[in-house]
Amino acid sequence: MTKVKLFFALFSLSILLTLLLSGLPINAIHATNEPPSWLLAQEQANEQPFEQAVQNSQKIEGLLTLYHHQKTGKVYLELTPEQLNKNYLCFISLDSGIGQAGIFRGLNLNEFVFQWRRQNNKVQLVVPNINFRTQPNDPQSRSVNRSVSDSVLYSLPIISIHPERKTILIDLSSVLTSERDLSNLANSFSSFLSSNYSIDPEKSYINQVQAFPLNIEIESVFGFSENPGSMRRGLSSLPDSRSFNLNVRYSFLEVPSEESYQPRLADERVGYFTSIYKDISNSSHRSSIVRYINRWNLQKSDPNAAISTPVKPIVFWIENTVPFEYREAIRQGVLMWNAAFEKAGFKDAIQVEQMPDDADWDPADVRYNTIRWSTSFQPGFSGYGPSHVNPLTGQILDADIMVESNAVAKFYEGISVLIDQNQQNNATQMNQNPCNLGRASLARLTSASHSNVSPDFSSEHLCFGFESNRQLAVGAMAMSLLNGVNENSSEIKDYVQQYLSFLVAHEVGHTLGLRHNFQGSTLLAPEQLHDTNITHSLGLVGSVMDYVPVNLAPKGETQGDYFPMMIGPYDQWAIEYGYTAITGNSLYAQGQALEDIAQRSGEPELAFATDEDYWGVFLDPAANVFDLSNNMLQYSQWQLDNAIAMWKGLESHSPTAGEGYDQVRRMFETVFGYYQNNAENMVLYIGGQSFNRSRVGDANSRLPFEPIPVNKQREALTLLQKYIFSEDAFQFSPRLLNQLAPSRWQDWGNPDADSTLEYRIGDRILRLQKSILEEILAPTRLVRLRDLELKNPSQNTLTMPELFEVLQNSIWTEVFQSEKDIKISGIRRSLQREYLNLLTQIVLREVNVPEDALTLAWYQLKQLQAVLDRTLEKHNNRMDAYTLAHLELTRDRIGKTLGAQLQTN
Q1: How far apart are CA 175 and CA 153, in angstroms?
Q2: Are 818 and 875 in contact (CB under 8 A)?
Q3: Who contacts 550 (Cβ-Cβ below 8 Å, separation ≥6)?
Q4: What is the pLDDT of residue 707?
Q5: Per UniProt, what is one Pfam family of this protein (predicted)?
Q6: Nearest CA to 516 among 681, 350, 273?
Q7: Is residue 584 within a helix (H) or strand (E), and if so which, with residue range?
Q8: Inter-CA distances, 187 with 62, 196, 341, 500, Å
Q9: How far apart are CA 867 and CA 873, in angstroms?
Q10: Per-state percent for the chain, helix, strand, coil, to nearest 5
């Protein structure tokens, strides 16, 4: 009998005697023939000697001690008693992708605080609940611990305990390569992976293990195999769609000492990413929710100097995969931010280094901040700037920027036809592709697109990734078609350098903690946009954190900068808030100094609106993407005129000898998308309201909501009539239309291989008109128009009756002004049918609109019915067959709709 079992027998006997003497029933305690778990753990752990367990394994020492068995591929972790119950950070990213389906190299997969906790004969990997916290020595901490739960992700058996060091050995392999791996990889990309593929354990392995004093780096390779009965379409980026590999990078870090970093409270007037928790101990402030901004730990080397170099600057390394010709532009984009840091008291806060070709470190190593070059088959972004943050304090610890090579390569070839010509006869397919929809329809999809999916993979981000590429292509086309600039000229090269510097500056802003600012493009008046004396001193935009379009000059004006060449006033102010050294040992001691900075938010050049003010909202025309100037109506009109001029330029453009016509088709369609984007910008004025985050007492503070002036709303409606709905809006020569042939390569190298052979120009125009019309009459916009009459009692507002009347008169001009023979063109007939469809849906309650909108739609149909009666009676013999049949059918449909509406009431 072993000593353990002898001890257990004596222990059991003593318990039995105690129960008998106390009178308690013996079955009150569950009987067992096994020793207690803590004794069992010791015995089982010692069954395999430590040295035997790690035999033939490579010992790798650093922050933690690991053993990598090369033959079996297993990785063991040796934990000291001091490393138990201690906070660590885990950062997980995708180190390789497939370049398609939203699965791209460099994407963040997960990050969290965790602890190793021993429980009997196992070690648990636990994510502590840091969302609820108390101050030290607060007795409420006991309540918090019992009120909310931590999350136990894994419970791993102890392999062995070292007899001398008392260290614990566990097997990490299942944590790093199984279907339940730390990254939750199989569920990280919506339903694409989980529906079509599964992790194949036979193809998955741990590829690399590295240990450093401050971090552990492990790379796992996950092999995916196709599920039986998979309905997936072929992935063109793969040699065989039945299988692919993904490399996942795990970085484990010790949580930095809180003594070396002072968190800074967030303010919603200044756009920073935040780390948030609820302070249970807080009873003296209005809210117990605490938000820290995400920022780097910049400290002055000379605290007494007005401007000082930092103790530890932020260093970005340009990856050695970046083409030589783009490295200087990337460097300039990074260094743009030093101007802001100088105003915040730091000299050379950001530095740029070039990664050597023979570097012995990996760009994914969290010790290095890198700017990496990605080459994807179907990229969903032009740039991507994630950072890794300590969620306990908001301190940024590491950042990596991905630049997509397709953002700058081959302007025309890189622009796919966003609206698949092959979908024109399939309304269901077309409506399921958000890139084909206007903003009103996109708003209805926003909540669904964010459900259980990282925003970086969501549909609207994918669409506007394409829009960025389209902007770059449009600028190059304008230079060629309007100004005769050769594709290989130095001017084109400078143009690309400007774009790349701006793109990198935008992504660096994210890595500094800054969120998007979709009001950043409203700094200058339209006539100032091409005055380089202004744009090189003040900036082209208030913030490079906006999605900025190419800045094309109108006809007759000298072209200025195409893209921002410096950060803007908002960027400098935001860095001042986040990084200026402020005295005070506590968060709230710094409060007044931060408040003094934030109170400037009402200044026009510091206007701020971020993602939640734009996506799915579309309320404020100034909170917008790919717009420019403080008078967007004038700017958009300029761009619509530029688009028309480019179409005219294509009429005289012919491919050079030996080239096909598919490039003409691509250019034609690219301009169409540009035209639509600028028209959509105008729609935002109708029923629009400006929104600001100013607080009482701020400089230039205003009420949060202000209606867009009625003259601006009417101007927008007038411009839409001219550029979208009028008879003369789309005029193309037969010669141009007969050049629109697609590439006939039927393989994965042609992104438009599924396009229809002929370009269906009538359908293309109608889709644009339908999109704009649906946005104007969107239920949300009609509700806003109704409510604006209450918010603006002076009656100086655009009313729903006026909107309906203007639309009907402009779309049915031929019958309302029928003094002569009537001939309605095919494009106008299609538009009129769509208008009738929309009003019919409203009248029959197929859409949820205000009752007044339903009444007005009914009234407009009655008015139109009466006009059609008179027109058909007066001009019956003076119409072509198309027009006569169209008007007869329209009158018949209106009668049936009004009759059906009476029955539903």
Answers
A1: 9
A2: yes
A3: 471, 472, 474, 475, 478, 499, 562, 563
A4: 94
A5: DUF5117
A6: 273
A7: none
A8: 31, 11, 40, 33
A9: 10
A10: 40, 15, 40
Contact 318, 352 (CB under 8 A): yes
Q: State the average pLDDT over residues 306-328.
A: 96
Closest Cα to residue 370, out of 390, 356, 381, 382? Answer: 356
Tokens 């101990």 belong to residue: 281
- The overall average pLDDT reported for the chain is 85
- Identify whether the C-beta of residue 402 lies closer than 8 Å to the C-beta of residue 528: no
Hey, what are 783's tokens? 């509700």
Sign of CA dihedral 421, 425, 431, 432: negative
Residue type for position 533: N
Give the DSSP letter string of 58-90.
Answer: EEE-SSSEEEEETTT--EEEEE-GGGTT--EEE
Tell me the C-alpha to C-alpha distance, in Å, between residue 307 and each of 310, 338, 340, 594, 899: 9, 12, 12, 19, 77
DSSP state of 704: S
User: Measuring CA to CA, which residue among 51, 749, 890 is closest to residue 377?
Assistant: 749
- CA atoms of 68 and 59, how far apart (whole Å): 7
When pLDDT is cut at 50, 70 and 90, the band that residue 800 belongs to is: very high
With beta carbons less than 8 A apart as the criterion, state whether 263 and 104 touch. Answer: no
Distance (Å, whole) CA 858 – CA 870: 19
Residue carrying the six token digits 């009109």 = 637
User: Which residue reads 């067959």 in tokens?
Assistant: 881
The helix (run of H) or strand (run of E) holding residue 526 is: none
Q: Are 369 and 511 in contact (CB under 8 A)?
A: yes
Q: Is the distance from CB of 634 to CB of 526 less than 8 angstroms?
A: yes
Alpha carbon 539 to its chain's center: 25
Structural contact between residues 90 and 110, judged by C-beta atoms closer than 8 angstroms: yes
Contact 774, 681 (CB under 8 A): no
Residue 106, token pair as written in the block: 């460099």
Instruction: Output DSSP code: residue 258.
Output: G
Spatial distance between the Cα atoms of 195 and 182, rounded to a whole number of angstroms: 20
In this predicted model, what pLDDT tens digit does every residue of 509-553 receive, in sequence order? 999 999 999 999 999 999 999 999 999 999 999 999 999 999 999
Among 380, 379, 363, which residue's Cα sits nearest to residue 371?
363
The reported pLDDT for the residue numbered 544 is: 97
At 120-166, the pLDDT tens digits run 999 999 999 999 888 888 888 888 888 889 999 999 999 999 999 99
- Give the start-end residues of each E strand in 560-703: 689-691
345 φψ region: left (φ > 0), alpha (ψ -120 to 50), beta (else): left
* C-alpha span between 752 and 755 (Å, rounded): 5
Q: Give me the half-sphere count of Cα atoms (radius 13 Å) on the Cβ side of residue 548.
A: 35
3-state secondary structure of 279: strand
Got the DSSP string for 466-499?
A: HHHHHHHHHHHHHHHHHH---TTSHHHHHHHHHH
* Cα–Cα dist 204/193, whole Å: 16
pLDDT in tens, 208-258: 999 998 899 999 999 988 888 776 666 778 888 888 899 999 999 999 887
Residue 40 confidence class, pLDDT cut points 50, 70, 90: very low
Whether 776 shows a pLDDT value over 90: the answer reads: yes
**Alpha carbon distance 289, 471 (integer Å):** 41
92 has which bridge partners?
A: 110, 250
CB-based contact 513:387 (threshold 8 Å): yes
Give the single-character DSSP code of 40: H
Which tokens go with 500?
């790349």
Q: How far is CA 36 from CA 12, 84, 727, 737, in A?
A: 11, 22, 88, 85
pLDDT of residue 488: 80
Alpha-carbon Rg for the chain, nearest whole angstrom, is: 33
**pLDDT surpassing 50 at residue 616:** yes
Cα(764)–Cα(562) distance, rounded to whole angstroms?
Answer: 29
Q: How far apart are CA 277 and CA 415, in angstroms?
A: 44
Residue of 95, 92, 152 lying closest to 454 (CA atoms): 92
